[in-house]
Amino acid sequence: MTTSELQRRRWLAFFILCCGELMIVLDSTVVNVALPSIRASLGFSEASLVWVVNAYMLTYGGFLLLGGRLGDLYGRRWLFAGGIGVFTVASFACGLAGTQTSLIVARAIQGLGGAVVSAVALALIMDLFPEPDVRVRAMGYFGFLMAAGGSVGVLLGGLITDAFNWHWIFLINIPVGALVLAFTVKLLPRDEPASGTQKLDVAGAVTVTTALLLAIYAIVGANEAGWTSTQTLGLLSIAGLLMAAFLVIEARVTAPLVPLGLFKLRNVSTANVAAVLWAAAMFAWFFLSALYMQLVLGYGPMQVGLAFLPANIIMGAFSYKLSAQMVNRFGIRLPLALGLLFAATGLALFAIAPVDGVFTLHVLPAMTLLGIGAGMAFNPILLAAMSDVEQSESGLASGVVNTAFMMGGALGLAILVSLAAGRTAETIQDGDPRTALNAGYQFAFVIGAVCALVAAVLSAALIRPGPHGATEAH
After folding, report:
1. Which of 189, 195, 279, 459 lies deepest, with the highest CB count within 10 Å?
2. What is the mean pLDDT of residues 134-150?
3. Domain spans of the chain?
4. Is CATH 1.20.1250.20 the classification given to domain 262-474?
């Protein structure tokens, strides 16, 4: 095979990797737009609807690091193919779901497949492009496609939900997944599994995922059972004990899922705390603003998709070039802190949006600020998480902050949705359900804005340039 043919083959393999990851990104944003339709179809309550999102996020976040370890030990190519297969089959189950339980279980399995794909996709891209300059170009394309996927997802979700029904937002993954799977086997080069006697930290993954599941179940049910009820306090206590057990496991196993020594590093610990707070705010934004526009303002699914478009275009532009330019010029601290501050301001604008809100006054400015904030902060928060570690540990540090982001999103979303539902229940006696819903959403947006603001302050005060040059964006 000639050099030009090899080059063409590896760029085709890169395209297949992007398609696989893009399918997962699209599915996440498509679901947000379709949530009100799913709620009406399957009879979810506002508080329980969060499980359509959280079931996915819990398994996705819980198995990201474990998926990466499995790829190292048993081969990334076959693990990527297996993840695509699991995600595709689970999408089929989601599309056929006729009950709340069947949809939530299928979403959890989707998250498992998505975690495996995401855990090995970046490593496979690194393997495809060993040359630093070509690798950076490929990573730029990858980041742009993932950000642009948000725009495509909200539009596609609105179009499919309007033209057909919500079941098709999952069924459309089946032909895409089948094609990606076929070309993965054909195009991706074989990789050799790591030699040695490394063991998987299965106990760590099971313990932390179970702890989070119990915590979120307790939070979601707290409005109905009572925040001081035996059920809520009991489940939270068990979750706390399991989290303590997880920390003990991580301190003792030879190959921990999360090396606790990383958190002794100032930038790593600060970036992870900021990621948890920011994720709580961001996931609440995607989830609650979609509900606000549909249930309060009366938008249809396609209108909601178009409303998200400015934010997603801005995020894509920053991911493609602007964020790297800002980091090269100003370092990581200023863009990260400013980005989080923009996000906090956007959430604050949503917090004062009225029942009879106008798009140009009450939705577009908030969406624009949130798009700028997310676009500015995403790259710097990853760089901050890796700036204190050696190059050989940068992938692990990136995986840890990604996991913190997903777990923060799951817990934060459950808490904010629960608080919103509680405020709505307190206000409903006024007689206007739209006013009650809006009061709940406004309260949750205030809490989300505070989370983003605290993350901005922590980043500005504690982030510092790392010793290993990881703050440079190329």
Report:
1. 459
2. 69
3. 1-197, 202-252, 262-474
4. yes
pTM of the model: 0.78
Highest mean pLDDT among 41-50, 69-78, 435-444: 435-444
Higher pLDDT, 284 or 154: 284
Q: Would you state the pLDDT for residue 236?
A: 92
**Residue 292 token pair:** 């606000």
Tell whether the model's pLDDT for residue 467 goes beyond 80: no
CA dihedral 37, 43, 49, 55 (to 10 degrees): -100
Highest-pLDDT range among 77-86, 111-120, 139-148, 155-164 = 77-86
Q: Please say whether the structural domain 1-197 has been given the CATH code 1.20.1250.20.
A: yes
